[in-house]
Amino acid sequence: MRALLGALGALLALGWQAPRPGEGLAAGTILEYSASGGNSRWVVDSVAAVSDPGCGRVWLRRETTPEHRHDCVRGEVLERWNDGSGRWVEVRPVTPGSRRRYRRGATEVEFVAERAGVDTVGGTPVPIVVTTVTTYDSTGSARRRLREHYSIGLTTATWGIFESADPTSASGWTTQQEFRLVAIRR
Fold first, then answer.
1. CB neighbours of 28 closer than 8 A, spacing ≥ 6?
2. pLDDT at position 136
């Protein structure tokens, strides 16, 4: 509890300072998730800081699928290097109070980074950005929403709920799946 209060106090006292992508990870770290569809493990194979202080590289496996992330926080957004196109791609806003809308094929996706906070995962305080991601179809109607706690330092979310639009529901949304990071093993 003391560590959580210290991390939250530092976050509030200093204002928002984005962590370096991957700074909460090390080679051999295991992220264990629990979801309504079952459990999953992500294994971090390697982490590297790069010369730019706002950047980091992470090599991990989600179950057995390898993935490489080269992320940088630039201004209020997170960018990811795309090996296929050979360029940086803006992925999402990460500064509390920022918002971005991206076209993805026939749909548009809106990210709203609402506020900074700290989640506790197995006793470890993890700085997060509370974010809502809404997907709109080609007519502009909201179809899907993800409410999540995104951790730049872990390069993933610690918690989230996927919802689909439902005009018969009082909130206008029906929960499809919830997930939570339950353990960080080093």
1. 43, 44, 186
2. 98
Looking at residue 5, its pLDDT comes to 42
**What is the sign of the dihedral through the CA atoms of 36, 37, 38 and 40?**
negative
In the sheet that holds 65-74, the strands lie side by side as: 87-93, 77-82, 65-74, 55-62, 38-49, 30-35, 173-185, 156-165, 142-151, 124-136, 107-121, 98-104
- SS3 state of residue 4: helix
Q: How far is CA 160 from CA 54, 129, 149, 175, 176, in A?
A: 25, 12, 6, 11, 11
Identify the CA nearest to 31 among candidates 67, 78, 1, 63.
63
pTM over 0.70: yes
Q: Dihedrals φ, ψ of 99, to 5°?
A: -145, 145
> Structure tokens of 10?
């530092």
Average pLDDT per run of 10 along the chain, which is 186 residues long? 45 68 96 91 93 93 91 96 96 97 95 98 96 97 98 97 97 97 95
